[in-house]
């Protein structure tokens, strides 16, 4: 009998709710993927490189043109310079990048601070490498960081702090002052930061994304992870990237080369061509804000209490005026009886904290959102 390295881990809530949606023919607003088409221009470039025999291993670091464009993007948007040769690496999705960063840093008994509600990848990955998760709950209901609690939780064993900004599932974003707080705290410790910034271009109401790339004084302590899947509606391509100071990247690549080594070649060339036009991502926030506003307007006709959404393509709502069920049971009932699948917030907490909140994904066609709203109006 195999001894499990993750004895408390079962199938993720995203797979569970998506399977439930399929079984009940429900609209899937649970899992975070778009149901609209990818830009045909990007597909054309992918087809071109596939048929022109760009089908062998890509360089371990990633296709050079793509890394150069990422370097230029970060210089232009965040005034932060990353050398495309030594400080940028293309990965097989953002999840692989996050996994690799943790594998690079964490030794047995190292402590890792995670802010909850948190994406469910972080904790089990830390535990796989013998680390200990130290959770800090964002202050409910505004989901802000208590920096005094953060200072208290940091110890000599703290190796890493994981931050997701914009935050999934809360939809909140960090301010410039928040980043200054992190900069000061990190500079006084030996800890590193893993900044999961996969939704960097999905912020709303003219609020600017504050990237940890801006914190030049602690650049040698920061890994930044991004996602082309979130950027260009191609989650199934599984293409991401990581940026880090030269010495950090050297260690990252030691783990990366024995994990996936390289990432799908024609996709990288296609993305490099597509990214030459910055307009393809600079106005992504407007595209998703229209969907957010459309969905909010529809939900306002129900008894859901809508929580603020400053970024990501997720919207959360409190259902306390509709039911006294716990959030898992309510989400299950919503899927089975009303044919709309969502994610219960308790799944994002180690101790399954339940504030009667569920998460909707609004990265869907307007017709899909209209159908979902029609069903939710019957609650």
From TrEMBL:
GO terms for molecular function: kynurenine-oxoglutarate transaminase activity; pyridoxal phosphate binding. Residues 26-376 form the Aminotransferase class I/classII large domain. Its cofactor is pyridoxal 5'-phosphate. Keywords: Aminotransferase, Pyridoxal phosphate, Transferase. One of its GO terms (cellular component) is cytoplasm. It comes from the Bacteria. InterPro entries: Aminotransferase_I/II_large, Kynurenine-oxoglutarate_AT, PyrdxlP-dep_Trfase, PyrdxlP-dep_Trfase_major, PyrdxlP-dep_Trfase_small. It holds the Pfam family Aminotran_1_2. Belongs to the class-I pyridoxal-phosphate-dependent aminotransferase family. This is Methionine aminotransferase. It comes from Algoriella xinjiangensis.
């Amino acid at each position: 009998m195999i001894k499990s390295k993750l004895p408390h881990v079962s199938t993720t809530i995203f797979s569970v709710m998506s399977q439930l949606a399929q079984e009940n023919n429900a609209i899937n607003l649970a899992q975070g993927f778009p149901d609209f088409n990818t830009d045909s221009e990007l597909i054309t470039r992918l087809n071109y490189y596939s048929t022109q025999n760009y089908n062998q291993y890509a360089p371990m670091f990633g296709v050079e043109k793509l890394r150069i464009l990422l370097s230029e993007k970060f210089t232009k948007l965040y005034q932060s310079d990353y050398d495309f040769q030594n400080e940028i690496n293309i990965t097989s999705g953002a999840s692989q990048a996050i996994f690799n960063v943790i594998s690079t840093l964490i030794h047995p008994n190292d402590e890792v601070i995670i802010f909850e509600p948190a994406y469910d990848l972080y904790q089990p990955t830390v535990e796989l490498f013998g680390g200990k998760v130290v959770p800090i709950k964002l202050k409910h209901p505004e989901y802000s960081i208590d920096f005094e609690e953060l200072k208290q939780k940091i110890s000599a064993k703290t190796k890493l702090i994981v931050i997701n900004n914009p935050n999934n599932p809360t939809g909140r974003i960090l301010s410039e002052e928040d980043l200054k707080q992190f900069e000061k705290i990190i500079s006084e410790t030996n800890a590193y930061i893993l900044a999961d910034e996969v939704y960097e271009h999905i912020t709303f109401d003219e609020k600017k994304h504050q990237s940890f790339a801006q914190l030049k004084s602690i650049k040698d302590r920061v890994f930044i992870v991004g996602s082309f899947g979130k950027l260009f509606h191609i989650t199934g391509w599984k293409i991401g990237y990581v940026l880090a100071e030269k010495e950090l990247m050297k260690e990252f690549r030691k783990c990366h080369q024995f994990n996936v080594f390289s990432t799908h070649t024609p996709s990288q060339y296609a993305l490099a061509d597509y990214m030459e036009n910055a307009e393809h991502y600079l106005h992504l926030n407007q595209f998703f804000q229209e969907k957010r506003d459309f969905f909010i307007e529809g939900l306002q006709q129900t008894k859901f209490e809508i929580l603020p959404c400053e970024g990501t393509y997720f919207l959360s709502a409190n259902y306390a005026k509709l039911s006294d069920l716990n959030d898992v049971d309510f989400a299950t009932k919503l899927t089975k009886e009303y044919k709309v699948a969502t994610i219960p917030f308790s799944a994002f907490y180690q101790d399954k904290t339940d504030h009667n909140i569920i998460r909707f994904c609004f990265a869907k066609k307007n017709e899909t959102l209209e159908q979902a709203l029609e069903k939710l109006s019957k609650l």
